[in-house]
Amino acid sequence: MVKACVMVAPEKPVQMWEVAEPAIEQGAVVLRTVYSEVCGTDVHLWHGRLAGVPYPIIPGHVSVGRVEATGGEVKDADGQVLEQGDLVTFLDVHENCYSCWFCQVAHASTRCSKRRVYGITYSAQEGLLGGWSEKIYLKPGVKIIKFPATLTAETFISGGCGLPTAFHAVERATIHMGDTVVVQGTGPVGLCACVFARLSGALNVIAIGAPAVRLGMAKRMGADCVIGIEDTTPAQRAQAVRDMTGGRGADVVIEATGVPQALAEGTDMVRDAGIYAIAGQYTDAGNVTLNPHRAINKKHLDIRGVWGTDFSHLYRAILMLNKHRDAFPWTDMISRFYGLDEAGQALEDVETGRVVKAVIKPGA
Amino acid sequence: MVKACVMVAPEKPVQMWEVAEPAIEQGAVVLRTVYSEVCGTDVHLWHGRLAGVPYPIIPGHVSVGRVEATGGEVKDADGQVLEQGDLVTFLDVHENCYSCWFCQVAHASTRCSKRRVYGITYSAQEGLLGGWSEKIYLKPGVKIIKFPATLTAETFISGGCGLPTAFHAVERATIHMGDTVVVQGTGPVGLCACVFARLSGALNVIAIGAPAVRLGMAKRMGADCVIGIEDTTPAQRAQAVRDMTGGRGADVVIEATGVPQALAEGTDMVRDAGIYAIAGQYTDAGNVTLNPHRAINKKHLDIRGVWGTDFSHLYRAILMLNKHRDAFPWTDMISRFYGLDEAGQALEDVETGRVVKAVIKPGA
Amino acid sequence: MVKACVMVAPEKPVQMWEVAEPAIEQGAVVLRTVYSEVCGTDVHLWHGRLAGVPYPIIPGHVSVGRVEATGGEVKDADGQVLEQGDLVTFLDVHENCYSCWFCQVAHASTRCSKRRVYGITYSAQEGLLGGWSEKIYLKPGVKIIKFPATLTAETFISGGCGLPTAFHAVERATIHMGDTVVVQGTGPVGLCACVFARLSGALNVIAIGAPAVRLGMAKRMGADCVIGIEDTTPAQRAQAVRDMTGGRGADVVIEATGVPQALAEGTDMVRDAGIYAIAGQYTDAGNVTLNPHRAINKKHLDIRGVWGTDFSHLYRAILMLNKHRDAFPWTDMISRFYGLDEAGQALEDVETGRVVKAVIKPGA
Amino acid sequence: MVKACVMVAPEKPVQMWEVAEPAIEQGAVVLRTVYSEVCGTDVHLWHGRLAGVPYPIIPGHVSVGRVEATGGEVKDADGQVLEQGDLVTFLDVHENCYSCWFCQVAHASTRCSKRRVYGITYSAQEGLLGGWSEKIYLKPGVKIIKFPATLTAETFISGGCGLPTAFHAVERATIHMGDTVVVQGTGPVGLCACVFARLSGALNVIAIGAPAVRLGMAKRMGADCVIGIEDTTPAQRAQAVRDMTGGRGADVVIEATGVPQALAEGTDMVRDAGIYAIAGQYTDAGNVTLNPHRAINKKHLDIRGVWGTDFSHLYRAILMLNKHRDAFPWTDMISRFYGLDEAGQALEDVETGRVVKAVIKPGA
To answer: What confidence tier does C77 reach under pLDDT thresholds 50, 70, 90?
Structure first.
């Protein structure tokens, strides 16, 4: 039997379940979980803020594990045959249909309605399809990445789902060398965005967030300077950004907060003809009041929504993570490791912001 | 002496002035005005809704005239030497500095703070720098286009300032062949956007506006179908668009209304991973309430503000206008010609929407 | 039994075979072929100029047919359930893996090495996987398009494989409204490129080719003017283009000839900072001598190779074809219909250029 | 009197001239030259390989100096008023007309035919318009950048004209995070391209060149590995690149050699659907034989010519240079300082490749 932590319904305590060992299909892979994580989305899941979630679920969308068994020969994206003991991760999004209008005509793969997501839209009744479990069942066709020898499980899970999410946001933001980039938010996505903004040519990275411990972390993760939100007004923050940019505002602003008001504040601090990438509004947290003349039209602004991730984001994020594994204190983002039976505590800690990154260690 | 119609101050009746003949500098051109126009911006000017306007002004930013005199040899953008009697128009925006950060580093020429605009930001005390006048003084460096022999002044002034504005909006919207395009607004900008959307590859163009006369005109200017706003709700209109697009929404929505609420409605009718270009919020008409999760983030939407125009938009718009001069009933957009002394009436008619295009004919 | 015309080996006469009726899998579709075509690629196949072709093959990559049977419920890309008698076409390229580095990381789907192409890289031993046959077997997952009621099989097959190929080339060429576009080549790809260039905003389309009958056809398919290659030198043609463009050269040149020398000629007639899209070099026809300083570097030129097509090109091409079905004399491109047993004659006719479009009509 | 080194005619020894102090116009600036440089272009000038050069000229297009006098108040691009003693550089390209078709319609500013270049297309008879001189006369309108306090003249001149040229090439190459980038050529442009490729997100940078001293420098300037051309064949080098990229080839190749054959070699080592940016073919060094099917069409390749630079490239390059001034051994690129009277020797040293960067120090 396999132990898994299950979110049985919104607002209910998570439970420890014993689940039968999976029978392995041709092309599938069973992982022994090394780490999974608790992120803001898991808190949303716990409060029932996402539509269409098939509770009970095993949460944990981004995880890292070791190959325990494969259904025949299975290869990773680079064509490497997977062997028992290999350290791997995988794209949580699965079952893109590659047939629908969004997949085939719009090439907007993150909008395919057939997508299922490990740890979010798979039910616990369908199998070990989430990371808060001793084992994870990778269905045939799940996109797998074997870690390079130099990359540890700890380094990867430090960024966790923040890695591909921030990578996608930075890609959409099309940073040019010499740009000043503001990152709104200093959670894992925001911190990873600071790193990727820096690595893709930003001259100055300004992180805006709270509390002090996260701001301090931001400085070590590529931010040149930080602005705390606890002791400033939105107008003061926008003015601070303008003061650092010759009065113009930032070339690029990346939103990673989840707070609707961030949109109004962010469009105030971006320069005319700049770019504003919105990645953090993952759930419906309400409305914002905006002046379209001042915020968009007169600014000649580009606003770019960022939904989901595809395999290229995870793949490239890992390449960059491995290359720059020693250049940033990745693992210092991990505030605490939690056993499977401590996942409820981890949810509470993430919700209060007491921790930057809460990591689930099923083998603990 | 030259007769000109002057907007002396916000909310005051316009006045007829007699102005001295201009002394012509080297590189300058004096035009005998054939037509100018009254557009929504002129109504805004009349009500004092634009900041920094140096009243009294001679309105009329887009005009067409015949060369009366030149200060030495003056050439148009194609290098043609201008001769007396040539029919020409010119870019209303002048004095881009080509030196500032926006001009030189950001290549965002419409955000250069040195820009002055004929008919808007030049004072009547500075000369004949607006089209509601028998003559227009083109300062050295004003960008001029000599009309091809096949293009009449009437055809051009039918579109007027709507031509480069709509051209820019359509360019920003990056329409792909096969796209369904919604145009919000059926004033001159919206009607020109219908044409340019059609000419740049739209499969279906849906125009949304009022009143019936404008909707009828939209059908003749490239719209495949129209939706009236007087007898529908925003939700009904969004649903109508989805019904015409397999439930997905339009690939591209172009806003040309000036009404803040159009932003909320437009993001509701654009498809996921689509494009929303905002061209109509030329003045501050207030706020709109928006849900950033549903309207932007989850949609993976691109929102693109469109501010001002540069010479390429006017130049290319005229090329296309001339090519397709017989394919659309351009001059039917002109509701009425007004003499200079009827400009006040024209302002009222434009404001009420009684007319599609009000043309000033100084020689009338 | 099903009659099919088989290319048994390079340089051998094609043969009529009788093939067993296919057993239909779940998700598959059997079509009764209405039309297929003979294009330049088929001539290349006949002469063995493509690598890796598994002779014997049933040629005919782009075809149109009526649904005879389906393996259970099968839907087209718009989600419409296919019924017996429906008129459909399909993307000849099949079995994109959606797993490899090119599919998943580079998003370069036309470079997936797993791709198989109906009529080209499927062997006759694998089934009815080509259009020169009374029936075509569409394997599960083949991307199908049901024709709108207004679109006839004749109109579609007139363009045939030239439709998606030219669509892709024009998409890569990113034409802006007002551009002058040269199309090198007046075969089906070139003629379709004239139409799509026109529909996507070209001001002037200049077609270059031979013989006179094709040049005449080009004029009716969207070209504003034509230049014959039989009585001009490359230098004269480049000069003619410059003469039509104020001495600058064309904004965009699209190559659809298959002749290596076209590259040198085309870069000579494109303007500085223009775009050169190469679609016609489908097989290795030899080398060309180029001066990289003059042809590329000093011109600040963009050269864009165009390989293969994906489903979006076929899908959007058909939308545009149907919309503009009456605006161009599509079916006049068809020079002659051939029965299956006349396919050898068709190959000869295409090779000599005696025909513009040779259509196979298996039911004839 | 001002001492200047003059290139009087092709293939003649350079001469020392004494030139009258310039009378300063309103808006002009006189610099006391701190450093200028000798680059490959100067060798081309010396051999008469550029068309339209108005010999005699004062070479030296990229230079750094201290403000000696200004004609009234003169500002730099950030709006800072220039004061005596300020350390500045300037864009060598001047007199973009901002009026012609290329400036106004194509927005292809580096193709404006009115452009004049300090040290190249200004004659010595027109004044002190080149850097091999004790003083440089900056005409009104020359775009000036005041150095930040942290940036030294030595650091800047180490890169010299290679900085904006490489910046432009890397910008055109649109590197994505995770890309493998090959830089062909290890002169100053190639070395700067290694740095900018690294800074804009390259995962791996592979420099190809000679001799050993330059290859060693490349490793210190951002290249992960180097391939020498003196002991390898083109086929071996292409294979080496494929071996480092899973058999695919590099995502991006940037050419900075000036050797036509580099085009054939580079297209062989770039991956399918990759990008090839050509920056080094600054003069006509002959032809190359290319197979358009294999090198462009089948590869679905993007080839991008890179001509000249505009102000944004210099401005942003300096921002990045200053930020990363300690991260790379910039000044180690300087092989030797030469007095004005040693410029002839410097030309010879650059031509033989004995030096990486030859710096002119007029005050020496």
So the answer is: confident
Instruction: Tell me if A2-152+330-360 shares its fold with A163-305.
Output: no
Per cent of chain B over pLDDT 90 is 96
Counting beta carbons within 10 angstroms of the beta carbon of residue A326, is it exposed (0 to 12), middle (13 to 18) or buried (19 or more)?
exposed
For residue D274, the distance in angstroms to the closest alpha carbon of chain A comes to 15
The pLDDT of residue D68: 97
CA distance D97 to A12: 70
Is residue D250 within 8 angstroms of chain C, CB to CB?
no
Which residues does chain C have within 8 Å of residue D271's beta carbon, measured at their own beta carbons?
106
Question: Do D58 and D128 meet the contact criterion of CB atoms below 8 Å apart?
Answer: yes
Tell me which architecture the domain covering D2-150+329-360 has in CATH. Alpha-Beta Complex (3.90)
Residues above pLDDT 70, as percent of chain A: 100
| DSSP symbols for D140-171 | TT--EEEPPTT--HHHHHHHTTHHHHHHHHHH
Residues of chain C neighbouring D303 (CB-CB closer than 8 A): 296, 301-304
- CB-closest option in A177, A246, A315 to D200: A177
- Residue B135 tokens, joined: 């003559």
CA dihedral D239, D242, D247, D251 (to 10 degrees): -150
Q: Is the pLDDT of residue C345 over 90?
A: yes
- How confident is the model over D87-132, as pLDDT tens digits? 999 999 998 999 999 999 999 989 999 999 999 999 999 999 999 9
pLDDT tens digits, one per residue of B104-131? 999 998 999 999 999 999 999 999 999 9
CATH entry, B2-152+330-360, from 1.20.140.10, 3.40.190.10, 3.90.180.10, 3.20.20.150:
3.90.180.10
Residue A174: strand, helix, or coil: coil
What pLDDT, on the 0 to 100 scale, is given for residue B90?
98
Query: Would the pLDDT of A160 be above 70?
Result: yes
| Residue among C12, C16, C2, C9 at smallest CA distance from C343 | C16
pTM of the predicted model as reported, rounded to 2 decimal places: 0.97
Mean predicted lDDT score pLDDT of chain C = 96
Tokens of B302: 């691109």
Cα distance from B170 to chain A (closest Cα, Å)? Answer: 14
Cα pseudo-dihedral D105, D106, D111, D116, rounded to 10: 30
3-state secondary structure of C2: strand
D319 touches chain B (CB under 8 A): no
**Which among A99, A101, A312 is the nearest to C104, CB-wise?**
A312
Q: What type of residue is D321?
A: L
How many CA atoms lie within 13 Å of C248's alpha carbon, on the beta-carbon side?
Answer: 25
Are the beta carbons of A297 and B306 closer than 8 angstroms?
A: yes
Tokens standing for C247?
Answer: 């001495």
Q: Report whether pLDDT(D205) > 60.
A: yes
Three-state secondary structure call for residue A29: strand
- The first and second tokens of residue C23, run together, are 């057993």
CB D100 to CB B107 under 8 A?
no
Residue B143 sits at the chain D interface (C-beta within 8 Å): yes
Q: DSSP labels for A155-215?
A: HHHHHTTHHHHHHHHHHHHT--TT-EEEEE--SHHHHHHHHHHHHTT-SEEEEEE--HHHH
Residues 6+ apart with CB under 8 A from A144: A29, A74, A76, A77, A82, A88, A89, A90, A138
CB contact under 8 A, B105 and D77: yes
Domain ranges of chain A: 2-152+330-360, 163-305
Instruction: Establish if B273 touches chain A: CB-CB under 8 angstroms.
Output: yes
Distance of alpha carbon C210 from the chain centroid = 18
Please give the CATH superfamily to which domain D163-305 belongs.
NAD(P)-binding Rossmann-like Domain (3.40.50.720)
Residue with tokens 């993976």: B300
CATH number assigned to the domain covering C2-152+325-360: 3.90.180.10
By the 8 A CB rule, do D252 and D181 touch? yes
